[in-house]
Amino acid sequence: MKRSECFHSSSDPNFRPRKFEQLIGNSRALKEVLELVGRVAPTSSTVFIQGETGTGKELIARAIHNASPRCVRPFIKLNCAAIPLDLLETELFGHEKGAFTGAIAQKLGRFELADKSTLFLDEVGDIPPALQPKLLRILQEQEFERLGSSRTHRVNVRLVAATHQDLATMVRNGQFRSDLYFRLNVFPVILPPLRERREDIPALVTHFVESLGPLVGRQIYRIPMETMLALSSYDWPGNVRELQNLIERAMILSVDGVLPNPLVTAATQRVSVFPAETTLMGSERSLILRTLEAVGWVIGGRDGAAARLGLKRTTLIYKMQRHGIFRSSLDSNSEMTESPSQTPLLSGMGIEGNAQPTTIFSLNSECLPGQSQQSQ
Fold first, then answer.
1. CB contact at 8 A, 146 and 95
2. CA-CA distances (angstroms) from residue 349 to 86, 170, 200, 322?
3. Under CATH, what is the fold of the domain 196-362?
4. Residue 302: its pLDDT value, please?
5. pTM for the full model?
């Protein structure tokens, strides 16, 4: 979102942000998150973003700021886990000259810098217990004192907090104040991991290929089907950040503008290299077989093949029947006789039934066939 497109008048009741910069994808899970962002952004309520590492918590925080009345002011951020505990207080609240040894000048804290703007506190679970009451006070009263001063300063700060930790469990274990947790958890936004929005992976790959080109000095023209299928079936424990890093590695290793499969050399590889197939049906059958083998032929459940492929259980069973996939005669039981919906396996990846099997993603004209870079 450009600065000129941000919220200009808090009195406009009809304002609803529709586009968010750098948020790539069109999955249902991402749309639900952006719907929440669109609802809370025009308010001044505290937002609590939760999600695994690498899911894009800072991007969501920036989207909230950019779609709010405060977007004309700088977006202030602080990663609480990156600051030594003995310096975190002065980073948050500032200090006066002479407040401690080495304090040779007055320093404004992040809350003061974020007055009338948005402050993003990442990894709030790392804030030490001794500092939590002071954070609770500024959230409730919007006032604080700099370290080494008795003068009270009042601010108007909109807080967006984030963590990858389970704060509710930390509260039960006495590691985090319950009153501070409830004050942070006014409007929770839970970000889905990348494995729960696999249909966004092709668009993300294309986005990274285009944006990283100038950085690595390489241009990618084609993405083989085997590569895209492997990327779309991998679990991505590091989420979008891991995907970006592996795409950068693959671009460095690319030859003649063809993106290789970065999972082949990745230490976290959990997907086999797909052999070249002559038909789209063959590629789909290969993907299903390898996924079934990876999960020990478990079809249902959270860790089953259907969940990894982003399919309904009955849809996967139907596809197994169509491709003649079975483990043994003992495994062909009642599970294989249910009537599934016929959802195409690759429809969410922008691969149509008449797509060419060798190289289905061409970057010469369109980002993806059937799917483009999406800025919601």
1. yes
2. 48, 39, 7, 20
3. Helicase, Ruva Protein; domain 3 (1.10.8)
4. 79
5. 0.68
- Kindly state the tokens that stand for 313: 């259980």
Per domain, the residue ranges of the chain are 3-192, 196-362
| Cβ partners under 8 Å of residue 281, min gap 6 | 323
Where does 285-375 show beta strands of DSSP type E? 361-362
Segments of the chain scoring below 70 in pLDDT: 1-21, 265-282, 327-376
Q: Take residue 116 and report the two structure tokens written for it.
A: 């009338």
Using alpha carbons only, give the angle 195, 196, 202 rounded to the nearest 5 degrees. Answer: 65
Whole-number pLDDT of residue 280: 63
Phi, psi values for residue 51, rounded to 5°: 175, 165
Q: What token pair was written down for 231?
A: 């990327």
Q: Which pLDDT does position 273 carry in this prediction?
A: 41
315 in helix, strand or coil? Answer: helix
**CATH T-level topology, domain 3-192:** Rossmann fold (3.40.50)
Backbone angles phi, psi at 4, to 5 degrees: -70, -15
50, β-bridge pairs:
163, 190
CB 368 within 8 A of CB 352: no
| 5 three-class SS | helix
Q: What is the pLDDT of residue 363?
A: 60
* pLDDT of the residue at 323: 76
Give pLDDT, residue 331.
41
Max Cα distance, the chain (Å): 80
Query: Cβ neighbours of residue 252 under 8 Å, at least 6 residues apart?
Result: 216, 218
Q: Please name the helix (run of DSSP H) or strand (run of DSSP E) that holds residue 160, with its range, or none.
A: strand 158-163
